[in-house]
Structure formats: C-alpha cells, structure tokens
Design goal:
With 189 residues, this protein is mostly helical. The protein has helices at residues 8-25, 34-169, 172-188. It has a domain at 8-91. Helix 1 packs across helix 2.
Length: 189
C-alpha cells in the first residue's frame, strides 16, 4: 500500500463493496454455488489490487499533483490578472498624465506664440518708426537740396539778368573802372 496516503484503505474498501454489489446485483452473473461466488469476488479484488499496484499508484499521485498544478496555474493566472490590472491602471494614469501634459504644452505654446507675436509687432512698429524718421530726414534733406539748387539757379539767373542789364547800361569806360575797382579790393583784402 501507499505510504502517506490516508485514502487508499478507504478506496480499496469501496472497490470491494462495489465488486460485491456488482456480482450480487447482476442476475446473469449470480452463481448458485456461494463458494464459487466468493472466489469470483476474491478474483475481482485481486485483479483490482494488481491494477492498483501496476498503475493505480500513479493515478493516486497523478490526480493530486494535477490538482496542485491546476491550483498553481489558477494562482499564477490570478497574479497575472492582478499585474495586468496594475499595468492597466498605470497606463490609464500615464494617458491622463499625457492629456494634462498635452494641455500644458499647448498652453505654453500659445503663451510663447502670443509673446513672440507681441515682440514681432513691437519690432515692426519700431522699424516703422525708424523708417518714418529716416524718410522725414531724407525728405528734409531733399527739400534743402532742392531749395539750394533753386537758390543756385535763381542766383545764376539773377546774375545773368543783372549782367545783361549792366551790359546794356554800362559802357566800356565804366566797365574798365569797375574791373579796376574790383581788382583793388581784392588786392587790399
């Protein structure tokens, strides 16, 4: 018998009772000679004992070990389920964090965009002001230059007109006296 297994005598007793009931319950199997019937039962019990010693021990060790394997697998599956739930919670948390981070990044980008826009507008206004000042200065210079040109032209025309008038009114002797007077002034200065 198997050592350490408390159920083996109980199982063998149940098999003996089953064999007796089987032999007594079947009318075709029942023999009028009681001695013959007892030998049949003993023969059946010996057959069961041989089966038990040949492979029954393995059955008694297989089923409990299989039960332990199934229990271990169930526990392992339960652990894996818990790990999967934990991982799912982490992923959901990271997704929530990603949404918050996305909103934060968008807010920062908007803020930076507004700051950049204001900076660009300020620089453009400053550049426009500088261009206006340069245009004003340039216009003033052009006006001065044009005024100078007009004055020079006017002076030249006035000189030409005065010269023409003087030629008409001035005679050769007056002309020589005027030249001598001018030369005297230049020499004295």
């Amino acid at each position: 018998m198997l050592k350490g297994n408390k159920n083996v005598p109980l199982i063998l007793a149940l098999l003996l009772v089953a064999a007796v009931i089987f032999n007594l319950a079947d009318p075709m199997n029942f023999h009028p000679d009681l001695k013959n019937q007892v030998w049949r039962v003993i023969n059946f019990v010996i057959f069961l004992a041989i089966l038990y010693y040949a492979g029954g021990r393995k059955l008694f060790t297989f089923f409990p070990s299989r039960s332990r394997e199934i229990e271990t697998e169930l526990n392992d599956l339960d652990d894996r389920r818990k790990n999967a739930e934990k991982r799912l919670a982490e992923v959901e948390q990271s997704i929530t964090n990603l949404e918050e981070e996305r909103e934060h990044i968008l807010a920062q980008a908007k803020s930076q965009g507004e700051t950049l826009k204001a900076d660009i507008i300020a620089r453009a206004e400053s550049a426009a002001e500088i261009i206006k000042q340069q245009a004003k200065i340039s216009a003033e210079q052009e006006a001065k230059f044009a005024l100078e040109e007009i004055k020079a032209e006017l002076a030249e025309k006035v000189t030409e007109a005065a010269e023409a008038m003087i030629r008409k009114k001035l005679k050769a002797e007056d002309h020589k006296a005027l030249i001598n007077d001018s030369l005297t002034r230049v020499v004295l200065n």
